[in-house]
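## retry 2 of 3
previous attempt timed out at serialization; input unchanged, resubmitting
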Amino acid sequence: MNRLLSVLARCATATALAVAGVASVPAAAQAATYAQIEGTGSTWSEVIVQQWIADVDASGMKVVYTGGGSTKGRKDFAQDTNDFAISEIPFQGTDEQGNADTSNGRDFAYLPIVAGGTAFTYQLKVGDELVRNLRLSGETITKIFTNQITNWNDPAITKDNNGRAFPNLPITPVVRSDGSGTTAQLTTWMDKEYPSIWRPYFGRSGLTSYFPKKSGSRTVSQAGSDQVMNFISSTYGNGTIGYVEYSYPVNKNYPVVKVLNKGGYYVEPTQYNVAVALTKARINTSNPGDPSTYLTQILDDVYRNPDPRAYPISSYSYMVIPTAADDPRMTTAKRQTLADFMYYSLCAGQTKAGPYGYSPLPLNLVQAGFDQIAKLGRADKGVDLTNRDVRSCNNPTFDGKNLSNNKLAQIAPQPAACDKAGAGPCGTSTGTGDPSTDEDDGGTTDEGAGGAGGGGKTDVDTGGEVTTDAPGTVDPVTGEVVGGGTGTVSDGAAVYADPSTVLVADRAGDTRAFAWLSGLLLVTLVVLPGLYVSALRRRGPAGARP
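## retry succeeded, writing output
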C-alpha cells in the first residue's frame, strides 16, 4: 500500500512539474523550429548560464556552452567558431600582449545577461575550524594579490578584523591562468582604486585578462573559476585566497571575504548588495549605432558608492551575439533558438539569479537586452519575435510604479552593526547568500568573533537561498510579505506579471499542450486513486489472501 501511494505521489509531482515547466518556457516556444547553438567564454557567468540551458532544454532549445574564459569566447567569436560569446569586458581592440582583440569584421551586439559580484573566497583554519567571517579592506586585498602582504598574521589583516589575529601561515594567492574576464574585473578595480600598489606590480596602468605572476612568489594559477574554487577548497588549500564570481562559493557552501566599502562597512556580494552598488553604474548609451561601445559599463562610481550596503566589485556580464544577415554560422532556426533562449534568460531566468549567487538585471538593461535581440529579427525576417517584450517579465528588480527604481536595491537590508569598521566582526557565516546579522550562528572559530550590539536586520531563513521581491516572499528589511500586483507604465501596459511567462490561448501550440497536461494531471490525481481504491475492494479485508 505504502509503495503504491509513493508511486502515486511521484506521478502527481512529476505531472505538476511538467505543467510548471511548460508554463515557464518562452512565448511561442511550443511552435518554434530550433537548431542547436554553441557558445564559449566566461566562467564568471557559467553557473547561471548552465542553469538556464537546463531550464529550456525540455522546450526543444538545445544550447551548448563551454567556459574557457572571456578571452577565449571573444577570440572564438572573431574566428566564427561559436554562435555567441560571453564576456565580462568588451573587445579591447588590442590586448595586453599586443594581439588583436576585435570581432575581426563579424557584426555583433553586446547584450547584458546577469549582474554579480567578484568574490574573494579563501581557506583559513584556526585549529581544525574554517574561519567563515573574514574581513579585508580593498587595500589589504590589493597588497595580497601583489605579494606585499604574504602572511595571515599581518597587522593589516588583524586591523581589518578589529584586533582578531590569525595564525602564522603563509598566504597563497590563487589566480587565473587563462584569459579571464574575472581577472579583468579585478585588475580594473585595483587600477582605478589602488594605482600606487597595482601599477608598480603590473609595470603599467590599466587592466589585464592574464594575471601577472611573479617568479618566486607563492601565487598559484588555475584555469577557470571552477578550478580556482576546487584548489582553494581542497585538502591542501589551507592558507589560499582567490577570486571568483560569488556563485561558486555559494554553491559550494564556502566562505567569502567581506570587503570594506566607502560607507565604512564590510559587506559580501549578495544579490542585494550588488543591486545597490550597481545603481551607480553608468551605461554607455550615447551612440546605439556603435556596437563597440553601446551598453558597455563604466564602474568608477560603483567602486566608490557610499551606500553602506554596496559591494564595491560589482558588475555585469555580456553576451556577444551575431547580427549580420549573412553571418556564416547563423540560420533562421539558430537565430530563433538564440532569441528565445535570451528572452527566457532576461525574464524568468532572472528570478533564479539571487539563489544561484548572482543579482538580477535592472529594468533598463533588460529593456536594452530586448532591443539587442530585435536585431536578430531585423537580420532575418523568418525569426518570430512576436508577443514577447519586457512588459511580460517578472523580475525582482522591477518596480512597476516607478521605472527609475530598482526594487531589489530598495529592499536591500542595511548591514549589521557588527559589520562596521571598528566593530564586530559579525559571527554569522559568509557565502550563504543571506544578509549578515548581529547574531552569532556558530560559524566562527574564536570567542572574539561575536557581534557587537544590536542594530542588525532580521536574517531570513531561506534554506541557503536569498529572498526576492516576488509575490508571497519576505522583505528582508521589514519581515513582511511583499510582492503581488501588477505595475504600470505610462501607456497602462503591465511592466511585470506573475508568472513571468504564461500559456496564452491564442499562441500556437499552447492550448494543445495545456489540454494534454491537464488531462494527464487529471488521470494522475483522480483516475489512479480511484483504480487503487477499486483494487483494495477486490482484495478484501486487510490480511486476506485469495
